[in-house]
């Protein structure tokens, strides 16, 4: 059963008065329909009415020639600096899923519920739960099943809305975490540990798999040989580990076998496993040192503490072998994304780039590049997150009773997905945010 997340009903700017958005075209992600010449009446942060020629005592936002779209969600972010949060909203991202809990997130959660704060709605994950030598700071180190169960208890006590699992968890500890999460009714999501086959992760109840993690490996004719080499990776040498991991990912991509993929698709469908391809970050990795590197224009918007590392990445020129390897892995990721979508596996739009807002639009374009229609890409950032989070009765559409989070666009993204960037205004909880 899908757990309903405690998303703040009136997070962010709260409208001081009713709002009437006039004469817009309303896009419904569920049906793909666009209804023209509609008015949207918003009261108390909710959509009260949608129809023609509405009349009400309300502030007016003129919408002639604009298209109304539900607010976008980025379902894989890492944000630790509150000063960057308004940038998400300015780019139309009205909700995010925080994929690695940190101490400041407890304060953010309280602030969202208690104050008028100009910030996107947020779902907060636990700190990363990893193996005995975590590769990310702030992680919970786990070696044994008992430590895994204790980590779940800690994550729940600290207010995490899901448990974030990571790559170096031992298989028996991962199994204990999965069992404990199921028993306690808390979702778990994240990476597929090196020691755990992706099919096992799905059968264990992992709610979402990030980055297509473990999929190329599980569909490689060389899976067993690659697994043996994965067992030798040493996180005490992060640069060496990530370089070797890149090589192994490339070998998996180059030895693809479609037969296991068909079997895995059945497992994903049977167990309700969602995927978050994060094509934006995979594309960034594949284009480092080339003119196609997409993050260079966004560096000024990356959190100040993280910006120097990204600036070094932007100026680094890898050797040709590394470039070719990463580009091949990215192309294979596009193929896997297309195959998952073709089979009806639900996808979520997420970025993992540390860039607030901008990269979500890149992700939508990359999903279309992978083979989704513009409508399907939009669903991955609107109605699909609402379904995944168990709040499809309140988010992901512009309809009476739904939270009034929406964008007003100058052009229809069903015609060109890049039109999601043509933002005239954003409305969050019924409050208009000026963009132009």
TrEMBL record:
One of its GO terms (molecular function) is hydrolase activity, acting on carbon-nitrogen (but not peptide) bonds. Residues 68-430 form the Amidohydrolase-related domain. Pfam families: Amidohydro_1. The keyword tRNA-binding does not apply. It comes from the Bacteria. It comes from Kutzneria kofuensis. This is Imidazolonepropionase-like amidohydrolase. The lineage of its organism: Bacteria, Bacillati, Actinomycetota, Actinomycetes, Pseudonocardiales. The keyword Cell membrane does not apply. InterPro entries: Amidohydro-rel (IPR006680), Metal-dep_hydrolase_composite (IPR011059), Metal_Hydrolase (IPR032466), Metallo-dep_Hydrolase (IPR051781). Keywords: Hydrolase.
